[in-house]
Amino acid sequence: MADHAHPATEPPRDFIRQIVADDLTQGRVQPPVVTRFPPEPNGYLHIGHAKAIALDFGIADEFDGLCRLRFDDTNPSKEDVEYVDAIIRDVQWLTGREHIEVRYASDYFPQMYAWAEALISKGLAYVDDQDGETIRRNRGTVTSPGVNSPWRDRSPEENLELFRSMRDGQCAPGSRVLRAKIDMAHANMLLRDPLMYRIQFDRHHRTGDTWKIYPLYDWAHGLEDAIEGVTHSLCTLEFATHRPLYDWYLEQLELDPRPHQYEFNRLNLSHTVMSKRKLMELVQRGLVKGWDDPRMPTLCGLRRRGVPPAAITTFCREVGYTKVDTTNEWALLEYHIRQELNRVAPRAMAVLRPLLVEITHWDDDRKESAHVPINPEDPDAGTRQLPAGRLLYIDQDDFMEDPPKKFFRLRPGGEVRLRGLGYLRCDEIVRDANGGIERLRCSIDEATLHGGAPTDGRKVKATIHWVDAASARNAEVRLYTHLFTAENPLAVDEGEDWTTNIDVDSCTVITDAKIPAFLTEWPVGAHVQFERLGYFCPDHDHRADRPVFNRTATLRDAWAKAKGAS
Ligand code: ATP
Ligand code: MG
Which domains can be identified in the chain, with CATH numbers? Predict the structure, then answer.
């Protein structure tokens, strides 16, 4: 990550960084600081994960520490290598690191198993033969204690024997579990003899059929952290109630030095959903075109849409890390996307809905050229030379036959500036057989070409974009709005399908946009601003002979604002 704020010279930005800094200066933690980002490979990463990644990798960077990507692959029934590969790609992209240290919880299964036997031997874990439903029922409630299992007082020897038979595949899935022996009346229900292992015969994407038992999150997570020498195990607030259990296991195993868990507020964003389960539902029900649909809040979707990783990281930093759950506006993310793209995106002119303009006093072989800055934010970027001939395209939105008062763009008899070229006047409308507008017959004031001023000193109020028709190429352009109409898509009435909030018009496909020829070679992943229209990037489907662009973000639209105000 770009940002290397050293803790010695700058005050910590948030309470987590404060804890890390204090741990180091007060000697509670021996360097290096070690963090991890621990996704379960059961779906694709979303922008919520980016907030965790920015913190885990950011802290490692700032404190000269180390952050690993560790797959929490402890549940083979839902996990897959497809997700592993996608997650690695996304983390590389977001952090800008080619090399990511990758670890797998499944590599630690033998060590975890040995520790489970150690707890059994100490009389701190037991094999329970109750079925899942009975275990749930006997947990009690917040106001009433649970009921001890009739198998709770098995001897360590018997427990070891049974646990080994579970491991060896001699017990049917669901017939037995291994539980920690803590306290069935504990005020924190998570400590009422929590499950450590369950029997599962699914094939694991890395360990195959080796294991017939799989560790549960609370048991596994702290052990994984301890094995890796993690100093600060950072997770979201919903894990705060799990922390006593995290600590209990590490204490009983007498592991030293011990990792510590700290919790921060998760990222919630308006107009979208942020749970892998919900995103999976959208994909499986065909409500979006895959995990990387540019309307998805997934990292691969945002990448495909053209969102630069720096914008996501800056957004996460801006939103910050606290102990209070909030929802942030999607508009704030867009603000950071625009800020970043304004800085880096070269400018170009393209026309979304073409309207043909004929410059009647130019011959067919007249060739002019316009010079426009490639990026006004970056003077070193230079200028681009654009061809212009007798036929040009402008956008239909920039012409109105019978416009309201505040419309300053082209109208019959009116005049605008063609960006970089000169003053254009509309002399006549040519109609098609249906009475629609086929083309505009126009004239250009020759004195205004190449930046010249009109001889009579008159001014025009609007500058519009255009593309030379002879050299233009057709392109498909995809415009996006929020996938959901509701700010909180999950706020639906009892029994109502939450996906009713999907905006069926959230993707508009324009198939006959006009782009300058050089954009057919624009690489996938590169940004470009179509002047006055927004920031765009080639889609995965883009080919030189069949260009496809996604709109990443609009520019702020002064006209829409004025319309809204009037
Ligand atoms: P989801 O709830 O979307 O299914 P998850 O929490 O199950 O996500 P994991 O793969 O377990 O996904 O998450 C990996 C890490 O990312 C965890 O440490 C988790 O706390 C963090 N994380 C997940 N969602 C968010 C979020 N919205 N904001 C911040 N961090 C998140
Ligand atoms: Mg989870």
Answer: 15-105+220-331 (3.40.50.620), 109-217 (3.90.800.10), 352-468 (2.40.240.10), 473-565 (2.40.240.10)
